[in-house]
Design a protein that fits this description.
alpha/beta; 6 strands; 47% helix
Amino acid sequence: MKTFFDESDRLERLSELGDRLETLNKAVNFEIFRSKLSEIWISNDKRLGGRQKMDSVLMFKILILQKLYSIADDKTEYLINDRLSFQRFLGLGLGDKVPDSKTIWLYKEELTKSGCYKEVFNLFNELLEKAGVITRKGSIVDATISQRPQQRYNKEKKAREKRGEIEPKERNVHKSRQIDKDATYTVKHGRQFFGYKNHVKVDSDSKIILNTEVTTASASDGKQAKKLINKKDKVLYGDSAYRGQKIAGELIKKNKKIRLEICEKAERGHPLTDEQKANNTVKSKVRCRVEHTFGHMVKSMGGKLIQRVGYTRARCEIYLKNLAYNLSRWAYLSTTWAYSALST
């Protein structure tokens, strides 16, 4: 028998079972992002009438939902209508209108064009640093591959298309739009990967992602290190991919006071000494914490697959994924550490 309190009773039960979205809502007041998101959804059309655009903070929270659960636009629309936990997170009731998949797609396009996703990412980190969550006692650099579905694409045809030699009748427009011409291949541990690289700098204490650089999969890890660090970094940890006199020189040139704790690598005919192995073990106890960050993305956030085509969109997707991780990480820390919620 239905009663007036059915919805509230069900939500109360979800809270008892542990709703991580409710915890996130309590830990973060998403209104802090409104000023940065204000440039999105601006229309030059002054005509009266037409459907009102959805609230930008609501749409932004929907994108965070997508990254937390790795769901596409159509599935997102369905799950918001289906799940009470999603509706409560977004501040929607059973009678409220849910944005459709096309609206979600359009908002992502507008966010990508505006480029303000980086400003939103940095804003949240600034608030975490003020709250004392980010300590800057140590920073860890590493990279992970964000894959795109592998595709078969004739190299000769690709070159002809770039030169504009392929006639429109030869080109399947719908298929061509799904071909990612920016992503590249790389080989890791004997396996071939296709897509982009998510280069990050992580705070060693809190495991919060401090900075991000996005490249194609074939880019060198070491060359991105100088873009990730700044003068606030005191100690830098990294694996052997970041070792080398040239890389060290560039890092010290950018930050003269930084101390480099980079793992050493054995070379042909020059195995590591016992002392070097012991030093690597000490460094790895800190450096391995960045793997926890990537592991959380795979195990709890549905993986690192890129669902959009092209570098510009992939860059936005990776920034949002990293921000969603930081939000999720903060929601956990706020329940275990003596920090107040970021409500201002």
